[in-house]
Amino acid sequence: MFKQQSERISIQLQELATKKVGLQSALATKKDHSEQLQAFKKEIECFADKDIEDENILKQDLQKLLNKIEVFEEGKIKIDYNLSPALSSSLGTV
Fold it and tell me: Which runs of E-coded beta strand occur in the chain?
């Protein structure tokens, strides 16, 4: 009886350890996304504050902020933002 109980506890411990690893991974991913989003917001604020008269420079800056923009027939717009960590270092130099 003790052996069976011990085996059940061992299985439960293993299941909990597996769940813990999964939850830690999810938290790390969420933290990464949050940090990327904050960096992106900061770059958007800097971009909005710029007074860019040269259209080519404006296009280059926008291309660094956005991966693509899709416009659908019904008028819906989908914007795919660039949330890469390299964004903040590359945009600061333009």
Answer: 66-71, 77-81
